[in-house]
Amino acid sequence: MTRAFNFSAGPATLPESVLRQAQEEMLEWNGVGASIVEISHRSADFVAVAAKAEADLRTLIGIPDTHAVLFLGGGATTQQALLPLNLAAPGQRADYLVTGHWGKTAIKQARPYVDVNVVASGESGGFRDIPERAQWQLSTDAAYVHITANETIHGVEFRDAPDVGGVPLIADFSSSIASEPIDVSRYGVIYAGAQKNLGPVGITVVIIRRDLLERAGQPRADIFDYRSHAARDSMLNTPPTWNWYLLGLTVQWMLAQGGVEEFARRNAQKSALVYAAIDGSGGFYRNEVASAVRSRMNIPFVLPSAELDARFVAEAKAAGLLALKGHKAVGGIRASLYNAMPLEGAQALVAFMGDFQQRNG
Ligand SMILES: *Cc1c(COP(=O)(O)O)cnc(C)c1O
Question: Does the beta carbon of 10 sit less than 6 angstroms from any atom of ligand 1?
Fold first, then answer.
């Protein structure tokens, strides 16, 4: 068996040790005589796994007691609809910053419920930069301000939480959660689908300031109500138990590796290698994102022609470097370097880039 370096943007590469442990425990887990996927979510055995995953995630990210942590199904996109339902009155203003594809998705999901105000958009500049904070047209009466911490397709990342005054800041951290230390207290809500940096697809983490759970929001079913999920420890209905367990193993692995400080160091190192290869290629490889906001997680770049892009992807795959095709919205190449991508993966990519350029440049 050979495991290739997998640069997929999501679902993404997982630590081999996590997959091996899950494999070993698949048929019979923890002496219970059954697989963890075959037991009740309300059993003491599973409840302990769920609680440990939350405690470990709190330690890893530094989540204070002021914030509740929910483990939900439906992906990040579902949260983009639930957030306005839970946090805004019907038709109330809500502010959105658009720095790429996912900011637009967030607006699409929110529009039926709120009066969306786009405070600024990077679209006219091809999403190569984050509009300066001083230029944002914030509303005076917004229910919240929504940003995308890391734009997975366009490769644009905030380096710090922007100051939005007293209005709760909501951030989609799907593709950069736990990749470096952050100050959770600066956010009203942080949400993230797990499939990029936290584990498998099928479970989504919502970190929400507890006072926001008291907002009236809009008429909604109990199952769409964050308060109900919080009151029942995310077991209002059957949660995705297998995904929760795998997320727990992944978080344990990150803690054992040294936590977010260590991953910040590794992620800076990996991304710097790839950006240096791009910038040092004399224009053969191009990434036009402003250097101050270049993503450490997702690096999109293009070659001189679409033909070369396609050849690069195919030859890279043959060389054991998987899933480098860019998103269809932007084309080209995209290298995703999440926490579980080892330094050796980035080094192998850079070596391949040099070799490919020599043969095709
Ligand atoms: C992947 C991604 C999403 C979509 O997540 P789903 O789980 O497919 O709904 C949303 N936002 C960002 C930033 C992403 O990277």
Answer: yes
CB of 174 shorter than 6 A to ligand 1: yes
CATH number listed for the domain at residues 16-256? 3.40.640.10
Catalogue the active-site residues.
102, 172, 196
Kindly report the number of other CB atoms within 10 A of residue 16's CB atom. Answer: 12
261, two tokens: 């400080």
pLDDT tens-digit profile of 169-220? 999 999 999 999 999 999 999 999 999 999 999 999 999 999 999 999 999 9
Q: How large a percentage of the chain has pLDDT more than 90?
A: 99
Name the residue type at position 51. Answer: A
259-360 domain in CATH 3.90.1150.10? yes
Check if 191 has its Cβ closer than 6 Å to any atom of ligand 1. Answer: no
Q: pLDDT value at position 158? A: 98
Contact 107, 118 (CB under 8 A): yes
10 Å Cβ neighbour count for 25? 14
Model-level pTM greater than 0.85?
A: yes
Q: Please report the atom of ligand 1 found closest to the CA of residue 204.
A: 7
Closest-CA residue, ligand 1 atom 13, reads 174
| Segments making up each domain of the chain, as ranges | 16-256, 259-360
Q: Quote the ligand 1 centre to 195 CA distance (angstroms).
A: 9
